[in-house]
Amino acid sequence: MFKLGFYRNDELQEYYYSNLYNVEQNSNYKRLVIGLDKSHIDTILDFTSVLSEPFYLLYVLHTPRTCNEPGRYQSGAFTFGEISKLLNQFKNFFENDARHDMWIHSPKTNTTIVYDRHNRIFLYGFTKEHMHIIERKGLKKEPVSIPIPHVHNYNTKYDSAESKLLNEYQWNITPLHDEDRQ
User: Fold this and answer.
1) How would you list the strands of the sheet with 111-115, edge to edge?
2) Which of 44, 75, 160, 170 is the most exposed place for a label (fewest CB within 10 A)?
3) How far apart are CA 60 and CA 100, in angstroms?
C-alpha cells in the first residue's frame, strides 16, 4: 500500500525519491523542497522541533473517501508534544494515502512546513537549523521531480483514520481553494 505510484513495464509500482533537496525561489517565495524515500513524518517532526510554539495544523482534505466534507481543516494551537502525538498517531495514514495535504505553521518563526499528496515536503521560512538537519540526514542537492505520469492512491484501509482524525480534534473548516483541487 502506497501513496504515490508510477508505471514501470506496465506494472504499477511505488514511487519514492532518492533523499533529495533543492532550494526553489521566485519573486514570491524562497523554499526548500525535499524528496525522501521514507520517514516523512519523522523528518517533519525534526523540522518542527527547531521551531517555536505554538504550532497550527492545516489539514487539507481534497479527496475524501468517506462522508466527510472536502475542505481546509484548521486546528487551534498545539504544543510540540501535541503535534508530535497527532502526527505519530496518524503517521501511516499521512505517509501512505494521497487524499490530503498537511501544513504546519509556526507564527513566531514565520515558518510553514507543507507535506503534499506527492510525498514532497516544502519549507517556507526555513532556518539554519533546517539546513543542519538536511546535512545531518545526508540529503543530496538535486531537483525533486514528480514522475510523469503518476498515480495517487486512496487506500480503503485508511478510511477510518480519515474520520478519526476529523472527529478527535476541533477544526475550523473552510472550503478548498482552487489550487487544492486535483
Assistant:
1) 140-141, 20-25, 30-35, 120-124, 111-115, 100-106, 55-61, 71-78, 172-174
2) 170
3) 5
